[in-house]
Design a protein that fits this description.
Oligomer: heterodimer
CATH topology of the domain at 2-83 and 145-208 in chain A: Rossmann fold
Distance between the termini of chain A: 26 Å
Structural class of chain A: alpha/beta
Largest sheet of chain A: 6 strands, mixed
CATH class of the domain at 2-83 and 145-208 in chain A: Alpha Beta
Strand order of the largest sheet of chain A: 6-7-8-3-9-10
Order of helices and strands of chain B: HHHHHHHHHHHHHHHH
Order of helices and strands of chain A: EEEHEEHEHHHEHEEE
């Protein structure tokens, strides 16, 4: 459950969000909206990457009052991840698995899923966009997240990786993890998952329960 | 030809000066701001005479010029390697002599801050009839131009491969050991800032050498404090780079469950490491001039002041102009306060201010969209 209280966020002098109170109770949300309406800003705000006015709570954990606990349960993957040139994939994996308290079995499973274990010794800054994307997705699934925020997760991925990602979302969903996914592409998730679309419009978030226009099925 | 020059000018020259605006501003302050206006001419004349007449001094200055030239060269080579600058490879379609002319014009503009000062030195040397100094300077600076143009020409015409010295150095410094998050900024320094860092340390140790070794017999703590604060001030460039790096390329770590103290320690540990050469130098050359506990307090003050610069950058939304104004104010106020010789009190007050400002501003920070 994601709860917004007096949430206000602007960017470049323009108010993007002004939400008095909103509770998102579903567990799979598809965030839609035209370019520049603030989808990434919303995801970054929930991830704790950028400041905002008001409060955000995930499963009643307040981002302001329990900063570390909140970040332990909310994971985020950027749309176009860029990593420092001197850090290897393994360095980043070590950092995330230590801080997000991941088991080695989980890390191995995720690496096999996205087939990037062979690239881990390379410097992440030299990764192709597809490889960097896969690494960012592995990092987003690490630990025991209650909420995973995925910004345009399907771009730059090959077909096989897209299928693996869809499977992974289903598996984590079954284990109780919620998702907020921003995507301009059709959200092709397993048919037994029903996504709620969230549209960002006029500084507000409009939820459409079980939107018919979402394409289901792989 | 003009259109090609405009493209190269925008991609290389304008970007170089934009990215290094802080560096040039501080350099300007160091050369023209720290000396009172009435004696500025005699100050520079003494500096120029020193360069012309003392071979060791000229060698040291040439080493600094050489590093600046390398800075320009590496900037251009990296820009050419950058994906967004691949259009520069269209350069290959231009006649060789025109290419060389364009590269000469481009490097002339990048090297101009040095060249302008060298013209002054040449003028003084010629007036004094110091032919050997004139010839040495002309040969040295011509070789700087030839080296730069040759490397740029090779890069643009022969290979897309990372053959350049910059690439070779990067391979050496990108060692594959397990890297701890607290040392990320240190790795970043030796990976991406190595040349600038080396120049910074050379300048810093030279300043310490002037006050502790060359003026050993007339040593006064007051003079040392002025030089010491100047050394901290020139580190402001590296602090700016660190915060920029953390907030641009490492911004994802804010999603990790680390406390604000962890983030503060990332900076504090790095500052302790990068200021170690100065500490060691003072301990070796200043042990008879400054008591050990004061040396350690000066080290603490320098780390604290860099932390304060960091906090100022977070509080000022990473705006260069505001940053420069505030750190100059910090320099001036520190100069006055430290003259009271209440080092521990100053250290405590400064550290507390830095920590308080950092922990209150860290999560409020967002890079300006402008």
């Amino acid at each position: 459950m994601i709860e917004f209280k007096d949430f206000k966020k602007g960017f470049g002098g323009e108010l993007l969000f002004d939400i008095e109170h909103l509770v998102l109770r579903e567990r799979l949300y598809w965030l839609v909206g035209a370019n520049g309406v603030g989808k990434t800003t919303l995801l970054k705000s929930i991830a704790g990457l950028i400041p905002f006015a008001g409060d955000i709570l995930v499963d009643e954990i307040n981002i302001r009052k329990e900063k570390m606990k909140f970040r332990l349960v909310v994971n985020y993957a950027e749309a176009e991840p860029v990593y420092p040139e001197f850090l290897s994939g393994q360095d980043l994996l070590n950092l995330y698995s230590y801080s997000k308290k991941a088991s080695s079995g989980q890390v191995t499973y995720l690496l096999n899923k996205f087939q990037i274990d062979g690239f881990l010794k390379k410097m992440a800054g030299t990764f192709s966009s597809g490889m960097a994307k896969k690494l960012s997705l592995v990092l987003a699934f690490i630990g025991n997240p209650k909420l995973i925020l995925l910004d345009e997760p399907f771009i730059s991925l090959d077909q096989q990786a897209i299928e693996h990602l869809q499977q992974l979302i289903s598996e984590y969903f079954d284990m109780g993890t919620s998702f907020l996914i921003s995507s301009h592409q059709d959200l092709k998730i397993n048919a037994n998952l029903m996504a709620t679309s969230l549209e960002v419009k006029n500084s507000e978030i409009i939820a459409r329960t079980y939107a018919k226009d979402i394409q289901h099925g792989i | 030809m003009r259109k090609t020059f405009n493209t190269v000018f925008r991609l290389l020259v304008v970007r170089f000066y934009k990215l290094n605006a802080g560096f040039f501003l501080l350099l300007f302050v160091l050369l023209f701001g720290v000396v009172s206006p009435p004696i500025i001419m005699s100050y520079h004349l003494a500096l120029i005479n020193g360069i012309i007449e003392v071979p060791v001094f000229m060698t040291i200055v040439m080493v600094i010029w050489f590093f600046y030239n390398l800075k320009c060269i590496f900037f251009c080579l990296r820009t050419v390697e950058n994906d967004s600058s691949y259009l520069l490879f269209n350069f290959q379609a231009i006649d060789t002599w025109k290419q060389l002319l364009l590269l000469l014009a481009c490097h002339f503009l990048l090297y101009f801050p040095i060249f302008a000062y060298v013209l002054l030195i040449l003028n003084v040397a010629a007036q004094q009839g110091n032919t050997s100094a004139v010839i040495s300077l002309l040969i040295f600076h011509s070789s700087m131009y030839i080296m730069a143009i040759y490397l740029h020409y090779r890069k643009l015409n022969f290979s897309f491969k990372e053959w350049a010295l910059a690439g070779q150095l990067s391979r050496v410094t990108r060692f594959s050991i397990r890297k701890n998050v607290y040392f990320y900024l240190f790795y970043y320094t030796i990976d991406s800032l190595k040349l600038g860092f080396l120049v910074l340390k050379v300048v810093s140790l030279l300043l310490l050498g002037v006050i502790l070794v060359m003026n050993q017999n007339e040593f006064q703590v007051r003079n040392f404090i002025i030089f010491f604060l100047l050394i901290i001030l020139i580190h402001a460039i590296i602090v700016y780079n660190y915060v920029g790096f953390i907030e641009k390329k490492l911004s994802f770590i804010k999603n990790l469950p680390l406390s604000v103290w962890n983030y503060l320690n990332i900076y504090a540990i790095t500052y302790c490491l990068i200021l170690l050469p100065e500490l060691i130098y003072i301990m070796i050359n200043g042990q008879n001039l400054i008591p050990l506990n004061n040396i350690l307090l000066f080290f603490g003050i320098s780390v604290g002041q860099l932390l304060l610069y960091t906090a100022v950058l977070y509080a000022s939304s990473f705006r260069m102009k505001t940053y420069v104004k505030i750190i100059l104010a910090i320099y001036l106020s520190s100069s006055v306060l430290l003259l009271s010789e209440q080092y521990f009190l100053f250290f405590s007050f400064q550290s507390a201010t830095a920590v308080l400002l950092f922990i209150t501003q860290y999560y409020r920070f967002e890079l300006s969209s402008k």
